[in-house]
Design brief:
single chain, alpha+beta, Alpha-Beta Plaits, 6-stranded mixed sheet, 4-stranded antiparallel sheet, elongated
């Protein structure tokens, strides 16, 4: 079956995070698509996390090359689960993020097995990446000794002409302000929790400047950033709010620590405001001179017929979990736009090119 037809089939599954029934159907489709080639396939289920499918051409814990990805998608209009091709672009929910590249990985598995390449190769596809990747955490807890020399991370969608070598550390912080309610006509008799929260955020802006379409993109985007994800407080128009809370989304570069952030938070807090770190991660930073990445880059440039640049992004990646275990992470995907949007698409040519690059790289590793 053609590569694009398989991607279209996968897009048709309404595998929105949390829709376990559709996710399981999606996994069974993948299992059946690899029937008869001799792949070792397990679908791992967990009590408090969604399923993970693990595919490999061996029975060992440490792989030479591992593909890490996910098959869940964000919610979409019904028509977005009906893929369409217009002017060389494949439209549909998950076309860019990241069902196209999951199928590329599956075709690489078929290629490795059918060609008998001497490379230990595995694929891990989770099903709740869009809401915290708890399934990946549960999987790694079950497979405590799993690891990889190289992780191919195709979940950085956007431009096949770019290899991402740095991802920031996302840190989410909850602020809570407790004030004293009173009638809005006599604010001096109360403590406005909303104002306390706003002032705290204003203090934080001294360390984490505000950027938007009006302020424009900074000349250096590899800086710590903060945005106010949610802001809630007050119930009645004429009553001073006694409680307010906000969720802040920080993205920290590799030279900034969570400890530094906490110090900045403590210094910014107004009296009556407290904070809690909801979640934090680790940045992924790969050297541009890493030999395994340079080998991949050389192959990609040969197939594309042009130079590939290194870039950095503010987003996080599940590949950090393997970087912490010593893996070299190569973050590279096909070209497209509209991730999570109504017009999400991937350029079909880039899918074929990425598939060629991946297979050639696996050939290279098998000969080392």
């Amino acid at each position: 079956m053609d590569l694009i037809k398989k991607i279209e089939d996968l897009i048709c599954f309404r595998s929105v995070t949390g829709n376990i029934e559709e996710i399981k159907k999606c996994f069974e489709y993948i299992r059946s698509s690899l029937d008869g080639i001799g792949a070792n396939i397990t679908i791992e289920e967990f009590e408090n996390a969604s399923p993970v499918i693990y595919i490999r051409n061996n029975n060992e814990d440490v792989q030479d090359v591992l593909i890490l990805g996910h098959l869940d998608v964000v919610a979409a209009k019904e028509e977005q689960f009906l893929p369409k091709i217009i002017d060389g672009k494949l439209y549909g929910r998950g076309s860019l993020d990241m069902k196209s590249f999951a199928i590329v990985g599956l075709e690489s598995m078929r290629y490795v097995i059918e060609k008998g390449l001497d490379v230990k190769f595995g694929i891990i596809l989770s099903s709740d990446e869009e809401k915290g990747s708890h399934s990946t955490d549960a999987f790694l807890e079950r497979y405590k000794n799993i690891g990889a020399k190289v992780v191919l991370d195709n979940d950085v969608g956007g431009d096949i002409g770019v290899i991402i070598n740095k991802c920031k550390n996302p840190v989410f912080v909850k602020l809570k302000a407790k004030g004293k309610s009173c009638h809005g006509s006599v604010p001096w008799e109360g403590l406005d929790a909303n104002e306390m929260l706003i002032e705290t955020i204003r203090n934080l802006r001294k360390k984490y400047p505000y950027f938007d379409l009006n302020t424009g993109k900074p000349s250096n985007t590899w800086v710590d950033t903060m945005h106010v994800a949610t802001l809630e407080g007050g119930e009645v128009a004429n009553i001073v709010s006694s409680y307010s809370e906000a969720l802040l989304d920080f993205r920290l570069v590799e030279t900034s620590s969570v400890e530094d952030l906490e110090e900045n938070l403590r210094n910014a807090l107004m009296e009556g405001v407290e904070y809690k770190i909801v979640s934090s991660s680790t940045p992924v930073v790969m050297s541009e001179n890493e030999p395994k990445i340079l080998a991949y880059k050389e192959i990609a440039e040969e197939i594309l017929g042009r130079k590939i640049e290194f870039e950095q992004i503010g987003g996080a990646t599940d590949a950090r979990l393997f970087a912490q275990r010593g893996a070299v992470v190569i973050m590279h995907s096909g070209t497209g736009e509209g991730m999570h949007g109504d017009d999400e698409y991937v350029e079909i040519e880039s899918i074929y090119k990425l598939s060629d690059i991946q297979k050639r790289y696996l050939e290279y590793v098998s000969k080392k």
